[in-house]
Design goal:
The longest helix is centred in the last third of the chain and has 18 residues. Helix 3 crosses helix 5. This protein has an eight-stranded antiparallel sheet. Strands 2-3-15 form a three-stranded mixed sheet. The chain has eight helices and 15 strands. The two termini are about 35 Å apart. With about 290 residues, it is of the alpha+beta class. The structure holds adenosine monophosphate. Adenosine monophosphate binds next to loops.
Length: about 290
Amino acid sequence: MVFSSTNTVKPLDSLIRECYAKAVASGALLFTKSEITLYREREVDFELRYVPSLAKKPDTKPKEKQRDKSFVNPFLPYDERLHVTSLGSLPTSKPTHQLLLNKYCVVPNHLILVTTDFQQQGDPLTKADFAAVLETVEDISHPQVVFYNSGEESGASQPHKHLQLLPMPESLSILPTVALWLQQQQQATRCLPFAHFGVRLDDTVQLTPDHLLNAYQSAMNAMLKEYSAGTSYNMLLTTSSLLLFPRRLGSWEGVSVNSLGFAGLLLCKTSDQLSLVKKSGVLEILTKVGYAIY
Ligand code: AMP
């Protein structure tokens, strides 16, 4: 099982730890402190993270950035001090992906998996992308939440194709929206009020890039029967499932939402946003930025 925790130290564990410590010490990586509140809804814990120091940081979308003449792609070239390792190399070809530390992290060891050559953020994920994901998670002992923000309304900010890996929060045993989706599958009751397309992964077998690509394509095909090509979406990949959430809006009342929001981990930049989320409920906010299904 590749996404689950083991007690064995894996090859990337120490590499990431060392690279992180050096990047912080050199000033290449800027960690931002936050306060976590657990918020219970439908008998499941959601994680609200209050990060007031991000309030001044503007949210820009990938295409807005590309239109700006002064924009410089941070992933090509990437900052060597944030580089963890290269992935997907065959003896005859260059690596397909580069594993980087997220320069502006709120959670330590937040990883970015970028394509070596430029590809557009929002391009469909490929077998090579999933191979690089597996190569990474198989070599880390802590379980990871893998996600992809696709399209202008998905919460993405960078135009160069990148997946992301976040260590599974210690305070949660399962991602809240995934817990509700699994409950829905078992009980055939509606738990998630917004559009979603999921595929259950068999956690008893060794997953391959083809397994993940097939799961992704089957969820994409289901989504494209109801939503037009080019619809923004978030993808979440965990041990149990691959889930897609089509997106109508990137934010609601100032609360920006990306795939982590759809995982049930929401970032609030002001105390007003935090109060709004608690008053409205996380699922209601996700329904505003996704598509309501009832
Ligand atoms: P997204 O906003 O989903 O497109 O993800 C892009 C991520 O890249 C953000 O979380 C940023 O913090 C991160 N980032 C921005 N600049 C750099 C950089 N130079 N090196 C590594 N990560 C970066």
